[in-house]
Amino acid sequence: MTVHDNTARDNTARDNTARDNTARDGRDRLGLRADCANCFALCCVALNFTKSADFALDKPAGRPCRNLRDDDRCGIHARLRESGFSGCTVFDCFGAGQKVSQHTFRAVSWRQDPDTARRMFAVFPVMRQLHELLWYLTDALALPAAEPIHAELSRALDETDQLTYSDAQTVTGVDVAALRDRINVLLTRASELARAEAPGRERSHRGADLIGARLAGSDLRGASLRGALLVAADLRGADLRLADVIGADLRDADLRGADLSGCLFLTQAQLDSAKGDAATRLGPGFARPAHWLSPA
Question: What's the CA dihedral at 12, 141, 181, 178 to 10 degrees?
Answer without folding.
Answer: 160
